[in-house]
Design brief:
Blueprint (H helix, E strand, L loop, with lengths): L12 H7 L15 H11 L3 E4 L6 H8 L3 E6 L2 H12 L7 H9 L8 H5 L7 H14 L4 H18 L23 H15 L7 E4 L11 E4 L12 H11 L32 H11 L4 E7 L6 H12 L4 E8 L12 E9 L1
Parallel strand pairs: 1-2, 1-4, 2-3, 4-5
Antiparallel strand pairs: 5-7, 6-7
Length: 354
Amino acid sequence: MSSQQLPLLEVPVTALAQAQRYPRLRYMGSKYRLLPTLAKVFEEVGGSTALDPFAGSGVVSYLLKAQGFEVTSRDYLNFPVTLTKAACVNQRQRLSKDEVRSIAEGGNLDGRDFISRTYRGRFFTPEDQLFLDSAWSRIDRLQGEKRDLAIAALVLAAARKQPRGVFTVTGLRYDDGRDSLHKPLNEHFVGCVQAWNDAVFEGQRCQSFRGEAVEATPSTDLVYLDPPYAPPNDDNDYLKRYWFLEGLSDYWEHGTASVMHDTLTRKLPKRPTAFGSKRTIEAALAALFERFSGSTIVLSYGSNAVPSVDTLMAMLRDVKGSAPEIIDLQHRYHFGTHRNAARREATEYVLIAP
């Protein structure tokens, strides 16, 4: 590898301290552990505007906001957009104790029961499912950032109650004895609201949109790319793992009719994306690099994915005219329970292409 190897770097304490307030969601490929490295990279790259078109858990968008960037976040799923609206777009709104108590304890305002009917006997207790229906009957009466905060807290509560935070199986197959797996969901919700309230701060103006990364407007100083990694022998289908959070984020507004009732988990159908297959991801990445060639590109990628890092460096060199700088560090992924899961121990690369 001919490009310069950069050492691990120290971090601006104030921005990192703020970023570490972001509520932690167990999410495939999440960059919580890479925040110190990314914070220093973003500081050295500089600029005033940033685009995060694969927002995911939202933590990198939040870090960029903490560092003073005007951030535009984007994701092809709805619930990550809601998270970034709650903590990045939102500058000062918080839910009051009375509003939280109303949602957690106030009862069902309109008799809705979609979750209780559709997912009876799946994932959560009848009491928890009644709470989710009831909570949404009240959240539906909120507007703006307070609505985003409440939905973000509901999503986080559901993720923390579900073993491993994924919805690929029912029951407690992965029950490791943690109290959080047995705490009532309304109690989870109250704690999650507090976490999101604590994360709110005023910074530069931010935006968040739902849509494919390639649809984002290429007009920012910095573009951070964290595309789904395409593993050679598995898939990177986020909807397969988090479809319940996706449905919960808008009360199945866009998916009620498409619930797959013939599946054990009553999941939502897969949404095809060019980043979801090793056969199409290289062309998809090439299109992204070309689209954002006028910005400094910072790319996160893993050694357990295709294309290889050497291929990525060559692609960036073709677009930018010079080889990118690269940082590499060991990183363990927390998903994968089958016999091949050892490949989740990987080298994480951060490529910087000015």
